[in-house]
Specification:
Blueprint: H1 15-28, H2 31-41, H3 43-54, E1 62-67, H4 73-82, E2 89-94, H5 98-110, E3 119-121, H6 125-132, E4 134-135, E5 138-139, E6 144-150, H7 159-168, E7 170-181, H8 185-192, H9 206-215, E8 221-225, E9 228-230, H10 240-251, H11 256-259, H12 262-272, E10 278-281, E11 284-288, E12 291-297
Parallel strand pairs: 1-2, 1-6, 2-3, 6-7
Antiparallel strand pairs: 4-5, 7-12, 8-12, 9-11, 10-11
Helix pairs in contact: 1-10, 2-4
Length: about 300
């Protein structure tokens, strides 16, 4: 895929490289610590307890699905919390990157989960939905009590339709959790450089998600969380590999600093360092990467 700024390819065109860049990015980010803290402090009350109240049958397995779950770090943490209410959990994982799915499987075993009954689908959301079929525009097949997607909606074609399909895959009283960036330095960066958007990656914020839901008559709750990424390496000429990975994941561009016009690279790195996007701490530069969880509870029959 090419960007509007011709010649720059999407990082998602090379799934293996994407996984490597993501791993480097995550190493410089507070993302996983913040996500884990959120699961410990907010998830039990915002989702787990409500599911426990909504789902009367505790003997049958709680049916959950993770979409674009990556390495499964957050999914495993959430399942640990859900296990306090539901002794049996049937988990379906929809993840297109095979290398990330392998890491998820390893992590789940390390955490002590019995994965024998789990369903692993190395697919995009569209491939998954095509395999399910539909009835009168409503997704056919099994319904889920809980569906989560963490920083994955950006990569889905026609994400507005995907959002409604996910709601359609919920049971009555089921809950959907969508984590995307909040209106922060990250969203300001995206708006400043629309040329970086492409057919593989769309700029989506929590406000965009809530707007689509509201337009379809669906109420949602918002839980916002502070997060940051140390991007100091991008300005260190001696840290070439880390700098390349972090810059590529930030821009979602494959080998951004090598393939983008030099003036454009300079403009992007200059703007990222501005107070609108980043802040200094301990003499190092941190990118403001706040995110938000949009939570939906399905009540009633969806209207088409």
């Amino acid at each position: 895929m090419e960007f509007a700024n011709g010649g720059i390819r999407s990082i998602f065109d090379d799934p293996d490289y994407y996984a490597k860049a993501f791993k480097t990015w995550a190493g410089f980010a507070s993302k996983f610590e913040v996500l884990a803290g959120w699961v410990d402090e907010v998830f039990p009350g915002a989702i787990a307890a409500k599911l426990a109240a909504n789902v009367a049958d505790k003997e049958s397995p709680l049916r959950i699905m993770g979409v674009g779950s990556g390495t499964g770090s957050m999914d495993c943490d959430m399942m640990a919390k859900l296990s306090a209410h539901f002794p049996r959990i049937a988990n379906t994982v929809v993840e297109p990157a095979g290398s990330l799915m392998l890491q998820y499987k390893d992590l789940a075993k390390t955490k002590g989960f019995d994965t024998s009954g789990w369903v692993w689908r190395q697919q995009t959301w569209r491939q998954y939905m095509d395999s399910r079929g539909s009835t009168n525009g409503i997704p056919a097949g099994e319904r889920y009590h809980f569906i989560s997607t963490t920083h994955a909606l950006y990569y889905m074609t026609n994400w507005q339709d995907v959002l409604m399909e996910m709601v359609g895959c919920l049971t009555e009283g089921g809950m959907l959790m969508i984590i995307v960036v909040a209106d922060s330095g990250c969203s300001r960066f995206w708006k400043r450089f629309p040329a970086l958007e492409n057919t593989t990656f769309k700029f989506i914020t929590s406000g965009d998600v809530q707007q689509v839901l509201a337009a379809n008559g669906i109420e949602s709750e918002l839980f916002q969380q502070k997060s940051s990424v140390n991007i100091d390496c991008c300005y260190d000429k001696d840290n070439n590999k880390d700098a390349e990975h972090v810059a590529d994941f930030l821009t979602q561009a494959l080998h951004f600093q090598k393939t983008a016009p030099p003036d454009f690279v300079k403009e992007v790195l200059s703007y990222v360092a501005e107070p609108e996007c980043s802040f200094k701490k301990g003499g190092e530069l941190y990118f403001n990467n706040d995110w938000a969880a949009v939570v939906v509870t399905r009540n009633g029959v969806l209207q088409k």
